[in-house]
Amino acid sequence: MGSHNNTIGRMWENWHLGVYSEWKHPASGQLVSRRIMNPSCRELWVRSFNEESGMPVTSKVREVANNGVQTTFRVATAYGNELHVTTDHKLFTPTGWKRPIELSAGDYVYRQSKVAIALTRQIPPRLREGIGIWTQLMREELIPHEGVECYLCGNFFERSELHLDHVVPVATDLELALRKANLKPTCTTCHRQKTDGEQSIAVRQGSRIGLRPEQVTSISDPVNEETYHLFLDGPHHNFVAEGLIVQSHGYASDPRPH
């Protein structure tokens, strides 16, 4: 986690109580503290995404509300993202918006990532989603239940620790995106390193911030904690929290909006 200043809980405090300020009294020399309602306390913007184009936009915060203690789940991904969400809160996935109770380990959610500019022009978002869904369905056929060796490092892993990797990246050859022969099982570490390497190529070729499917590794048992609503002006009622794309309400105090 980053500084508590970046959490939605702190956003709520600043929005309703003002920012915390401290200075030395000129006469006594003692430190004096208070909250000040600056105009900037309610001039907040967050990153959102156009769900159709996958392009990043900015959305103005309309209200930050305390939603009381509610049941939350911690959703963790293979890339290292961790996010606390309420039962009714939804994450953006290749198959639409999903509540945490509708997700399981092995499913995919979207995270923000650098995406090659050439790739975003050639592959429409819906087609990319379809490729992701098809790849996920191939797990049952191509990854044995008893586990198998990672094709990159050669070590044996349990089925739950393996991903299906496009040996020839989709960005390199779209015609191979839906060929079983181009899919090989790989462990989380090798998959991440290969993906990061492909992204470094994309950066050199020219890139922008976009959406990338990321595999869910675990969803925790429910716990109760303080939650908040973040309301945004339309038309894009979503924002980026801990790198994941989520609807604009129902958050625990941990997420860091971007």
Protein architecture, described:
- The protein contains five helices and 17 strands.
- Helices cover 20% and strands 41% of the residues.
- The protein is an alpha+beta fold.
- The strands form six sheets. Strands 3, 4, 5, 8, 13, 14 and 17 form a seven-stranded antiparallel sheet that branches. A two-stranded antiparallel sheet has the order 1-2.
- Low-confidence segments, given as residue ranges, are 1-6
Radius of gyration equals 21 Å
- Coarse shape: elongated
Q: Give the class from helix and strand content and strand pairing.
A: alpha+beta
SSE series: HEEEEEEEEHHHEEEEHEEEEE
Mean pLDDT: 83
Strand tally? 17
Biggest β-sheet: count, sense, barrel?
7 strands, antiparallel
Q: Determine the strand fraction and express it as a percent band.
A: 35-45%
Give the helices and strands, then pairings.
Layout: H1 8-17, E1 19-24, E2 31-36, E3 45-49, E4 56-77, E5 82-86, E6 91-93, E7 96-98, E8 108-116, H2 117-122, H3 125-137, H4 139-142, E9 148-149, E10 156-157, E11 162-166, E12 183-187, H5 188-205, E13 207-219, E14 223-232, E15 238-241, E16 244-247, E17 251-252
Antiparallel strand pairs: 1-2, 3-4, 4-5, 4-13, 4-14, 6-7, 8-13, 9-10, 11-12, 14-17, 15-16
Question: Quick summary of this structure?
Answer:
By secondary structure, the protein is an alpha+beta fold. The protein has helices at residues 8-17, 117-122, 125-137, 139-142, 188-205; strands at residues 19-24, 31-36, 45-49, 56-77, 82-86, 91-93, 96-98, 108-116, 148-149, 156-157, 162-166, 183-187, 207-219, 223-232, 238-241, 244-247, 251-252. The protein contains five helices and 17 strands.
